[in-house]
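hey so i finally got around to running the thing on that chain from the lab meeting. sorry it took forever, my laptop kept dying and i had to restart like 3 times. anyway pasting the input first so we r on the same page abt which one it is
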Amino acid sequence: MRPVRVPGSRFQIALAAGALLLGGCGFLKAEAPGPPAVPVALVAEMEPIAGVDGGTPCGPGEFAAEAAQALADWGAKRAYVERLLTAQKARELSRWARKEMAGYRRVPPLGGVAFRPAFYHKDARRLVLEGVVDTLPTHSPLVTRCLKVYLLYDQGAQAIVKVAVTIRGELQE
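ok and heres what got predicted. didnt touch it at all, straight out
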């Protein structure tokens, strides 16, 4: 059988090969991850969180407007944090209930977390919002352990400038 010659076929093949070599064919390119939506600190259980801990405790109903602005910004940044916060990461944050955390397999979606203003840093004009992601297995029936997310909202920038994830325990008496 004799090969069929198609006019210009060598040229077309050479052109396609050149385009591939020069970086064409966009669907084959691996997308580089963009910059993080917000810095995220994964903090070991009960360790202090720089820039978050301290400040003046917020009373009920305080900072409602700022909290609403922070939550609007959180809507844009939440997916990035959800990709980082895996069950494995939550287990790694645990210090006192490692054995009990071995079976922890799923972090609930962050879209369902209810946040409340927790602390206000007056000099820095920063508001800390606290949300409970999940109640975790515990090493003692007297201790309640929670996976928590803290949002640090800067009033000047009108944006969340830091997210911290940690485990906090509370002794039930």
